[in-house]
Design brief:
Blueprint (H helix, E strand, L loop, with lengths): L2 H8 L9 H21 L11 H7 L10 H12 L21 H13 L9 H16 L7 E5 L2 H17 L3 H4 L7 E6 L4 H9 L7 E4 L9 H13 L3 E8 L11 H11 L2 E5 L25 E5 L11 E5 L2 H8 L33 H36 L3 E3 L7 E6 L6 H18 L5 E5 L2 E7 L7 H20 L2
Parallel strand pairs: 2-3, 2-4, 4-5, 5-6
Antiparallel strand pairs: 1-7, 6-7, 8-9, 9-11, 10-11
Helix pairs in contact: 2-4, 5-13, 6-13, 7-9, 7-12, 13-15, 14-15
The chain binds pyridoxal-5'-phosphate (PLP).
Length: about 500
């Protein structure tokens, strides 16, 4: 490369548009396209598969030369936007997916404008994240001085909570020495607990069999006596229990553990209480009787939960609150020379979030949470959550009224598990039939429940974390399940 060319490259060219007014026009058009999409969501299919032709077009050669922005935008509009997961649609009931909000769309754009790195330093975004954590501390009645951090989701929040628990049990020296001769650590959770808990235990190097799975009782909460027995067995065998994981809102059925009882057991055996409240923690904002399900949540030493499920915030946004902020920091702080704190400068702003979690560079995910909480307010968000619980109950009532439908688990929160039954069919055939019903419901674009197993039966699982769902959507779902069930079972 000759010198002239080199200096040519080094001069004035940036990645900014050469013509800002043309860029503005494109941007405004794109915003309209996005808002049109949101406004017309209920009229479209819940989901449609990505056509093979589109997959092939996406698999383009390496883009060595750039394209005009309008071309990229139109590819997005035509080849990406129509093939969303569908969780913005009023009849999306699969897994536990939040809906997102229009205000959240704007927040994402604002956050991108600032492009803040929230690993640390002294700038506006940090104060927003701290404020979110402060509001959550108040909602969940954690003591003043408790700390926390926003995360990608409950999976990472859980890992942070459990690593802090290990630091509490073994001391921060473990960070340097790694496992030595101390007894094997053991944690406990209900057999209904989410797989994210086992994954956290695996990532910590404990091995997932050291997350003891305790049977659940009829109400789908942890069996406290079985938990005590498991802890005592482990102590007797020379292992070291360190943590009990309680769940508010299990992913299968929406059941919950008795947190007060778990807290008592933790005090008795000197164990850390971690609570997985991914979506269920927000029952705290609902009316009775649902609010009671989060009873005792303030007893947790660490609490993991999401904003992207039941608070309807855009993906991804989770959080962990930890009562002992100093311990939390001791478990994660790591600041080499080039990251040292410098008072009264951009390098100030202690404590830095990078000292409270795994990531050094972090997005400004707090902004979409801030927009959502401030624009809608906790009162309205609480009403939406209550509404979703009522809807799950309403669906259970619809199911109870039809002899061809069977409720498979008690509805305690926002999840309803049921199935279509044809009287002369054995269970294995019913499993297949109900799986087919769900596949067809999704494929037709009419509704998107998912499936799970409840007491070894395949269930159509409807989880409602959706502010757009109406009772009529549940009636339509029910009628379609009946129609498909009748059609498919008469064909067999
Ligand atoms: C979704 C969920 C998780 C995992 O949370 P992510 O935000 O997906 O990482 C953990 N526990 C429960 C009960 C969940 O519903």
């Amino acid at each position: 490369m000759d010198t002239e060319n080199k200096t040519g490259n080094l001069t004035e060219k940036t990645l900014d548009p050469e013509d800002w007014s043309a860029f503005r026009r494109s941007a405004h058009n794109m915003l309209d396209t996005c808002l049109d999409h949101l406004e017309s969501l209920p009229q479209g299919p819940v989901w449609q598969p990505v056509p093979d032709a589109v997959k092939q077009q996406i698999a383009a050669p390496l883009p060595s030369e750039g394209l005009p922005l309008d071309e990229v935008l139109s590819d997005f509009t035509g080849k990406v936007l129509p093939y969303a997961t569908g969780n913005g649609h009023p009849r999306f009931f699969g897994w536990v997916h939040g809906t997102g909000t229009p205000a959240g769309v704007l927040a994402e754009m604002c956050a991108a404008t600032m492009n803040s790195n929230c690993g640390g330093r002294d700038h506006g975004a940090i104060y927003i994240e701290r404020q979110i954590i402060e509001w959550c501390r108040q909602i969940f009645s954690f003591p003043e001085g408790a700390g926390g951090i926003l995360t990608t989701g409950t999976s990472t929040a859980t890992l942070i909570g459990l690593v802090t628990a290990r630091t509490w049990k073994l001391g921060a020296g473990f960070r340097k020495s790694g496992p030595g001769t101390e007894p094997q650590l053991a944690a406990y959770a209900s057999e209904q607990a989410h797989s994210a808990n086992a994954k956290a235990v695996e990532v910590m190097g404990l091995g997932s069999e050291w997350l003891r799975r305790i049977p659940a009782d009829e109400a789908h909460g942890i069996d406290a006596e079985a938990l005590r027995r498991a802890i005592e067995d482990d102590i007797r065998n020379g292992y070291q229990p360190f943590c009990v994981i309680g769940t508010v809102g299990t992913v299968n059925t929406g059941g919950s553990d008795d947190l007060r009882k778990l807290s008592e057991i933790c005090k008795q055996y000197e164990l850390w209480l971690h609570v997985d409240g991914a979506f269920g923690a927000w029952a705290r904002l609902a009316d009775q009787p649902w609010r009671n399900l989060a009873e005792g949540i303030e007893e947790a030493d660490s609490l993991a939960f999401d904003f992207h499920k039941w608070m309807y915030v855009q993906y991804d946004a989770g959080c962990v609150l930890i009562k002992d902020a100093a311990l939390h920091r001791a478990a994660f702080a790591a600041r080499p020379d080039y990251l040292q704190h410098v008072e009264n400068s951009l390098g100030g702003g202690d404590p830095w979030f990078c000292d409270l979690g795994i990531d050094l560079s972090r997005s400004f995910r707090a902004l979409k949470v801030w927009f959502t909480l401030r624009h809608y307010g906790f009162e309205e968000l609480g009403r939406q959550i209550t509404g979703n619980c009522r809807q799950a109950r309403y669906l259970a009532d619809l199911v109870a009224r039809r002899p061809e439908l069977e409720l498979l688990a008690p509805v305690s929160l926002n999840i309803c598990c049921f199935r279509y039954i044809a009287s002369d069919m054995p269970d294995e055939r019913l499993d297949e039939l109900n799986r087919d019903i769900v596949v067809r419901l999704q494929g037709s674009g009419i509704a998107a429940p998912s499936t799970t197993r409840v007491q070894s039966r395949l269930a159509i699982r409807v989880a409602i974390t959706n502010h757009r769902t109406r009772l009529s959507d549940l009636e339509l779902l029910c009628n379609e399940v009946l129609r498909l069930g009748n059609a498919l079972s008469s064909g067999r």
